[in-house]
Amino acid sequence: MTIKIIIAILLFLCLADMPYGFYQLVRLLAFVGFAALAFIANKEGRQTEMIVYIVLAVLFQPLLKISLGSKRKCLAKSATNCIAV
Questions:
Q1: What is the pTM of this model?
Q2: Cβ(7)–Cβ(34) below 8 Å
């Protein structure tokens, strides 16, 4: 539960005007956090939750930037914050 709260706080902070490096750090931390949550969900046998966390980890992975466009990006941020909480 702590991982979800930390990710949610970081993603809400992204709504503020922050330097670009902060967003890069959030992408890395969100990737690690969602990957850890996927591992935990798999260990506990929650397959649907694991798949959702894997998709979120891929979306936030720091190696290749995935551009969604402004409308989709806003939707994705809102959905991610809801899932994280």
A1: 0.73
A2: yes
**DSSP code, position 62:** S
Taking the C-alpha atoms of residue 22 and residue 53, their distance in angstroms, rounded to an integer, is: 22
- Cα 85 to Cα 23: distance, rounded to the nearest angstrom: 19
CA dihedral sign, ordered 4, 26, 79, 60: negative
Distance CA 46, CA 50 (A): 6
Token pair for 40: 């935990």
pLDDT digit string (tens) for 3-58? 888 888 888 888 888 888 888 898 899 999 999 999 999 999 999 999 999 988 88
- Taking the C-alpha atoms of residue 29 and residue 34, their distance in angstroms, rounded to an integer, is 8
